[in-house]
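Recall the central idea of this unit: under ordinary conditions, the amino acid sequence of a chain determines the structure it adopts. In this exercise we apply that idea directly, starting from the sequence alone.
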Amino acid sequence: MGRLSRAQTQERNRAKVLAAARDEFAERGYREAKVDGIAERAELTRGAVYSNFPGKRALYFAVLADLAERAPEPPYPEPGRTAGEAVRAFARAWVARLPLATPVTTVDEARGQARLGMDVLPEVIADERTRAAFAQLMRFDAIMLGLALERLDPPDDGRRMVRVAEAVLTTLQGASQLAAAAPGFVEPFNIVSACERLAALDLDDRWPPPHLAYIPAARPADEQWAPPHAIDALRGEPVRLADDGVVAVLGLHRLEAAEEAVRALPPGAAVTAVLVTGDPAELLPLARLTVAEVAGCLRQAFAPSAWPRLRVVYDESGAFATAAGVSEIGEMTEVALRVEGGRVVARAEGRGACHAVAS
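Accordingly, the structure predicted from this sequence is:
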């Protein structure tokens, strides 16, 4: 076997660290897990662990994101045909992943699965920066679920379904925490039934269009558009970013702007949300975890024709931002491009940019 390149060695070491951390967190729990213990399991130095991850929390989020993205998805016989059926299928897919609902071979394995996810919310709450990002990511999840519900079963009166999606996700997130903290308290069937009934609620959810006075003007452009290859996190497949539509480079505090583009864009065109952050080592794994939990359930509960007109891409290296001409990245970044015929024909920056180029 030939000698590994530097990049191959780094990739191998990163995989070893992730595998060792998963075992350490499952066996000892996040609080008691030690970076030295992870390094020993991976047969690497402590420095090698820190060269791949800036700290234990970033590594914890990365482990959970990797597990969520790789989780098997047993197909249901038939996706939901109505909003209630789809929410029921979505909730079934969610609770099927809970520790007490997942088949295990030993008591220790069950305890390990419960330990893995127990500290997500405590770690999110412990840091203001992480908490603010998580709040926006949950809103983004609700937007994805709400848009799917609207496409599947459009309300007669034009109601929006995002608030219903927020109620469903609140119920399911609470069930996840209680399944680990209070084993035996959560009855999965009851959670599924409750979520199904939420789909029929009228929460007076109307789409408030952005105030035109605060929307920047979209500037005409004629630029070559050559984005890097990407995977759509929602569908789990390669995405063609040269297709007609809107490409939005969004910091984690501006993710809701993707909904503005979806609602303003004519039918037949897609919106691609490119997620960026000033702290990709810690916050992008949190984004991957939060989005993967919803994306996996969406794929099981909705037929592809009902998936939202939204594609999700992570820009860990900054390559997408560079291709889009974005020089500075932060949590409030909002830069939108209108793409037609493989070229950028309009662009806008700042709050309201997505609505500006989509409309």
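The two ends are 56 Å apart (CA to CA).
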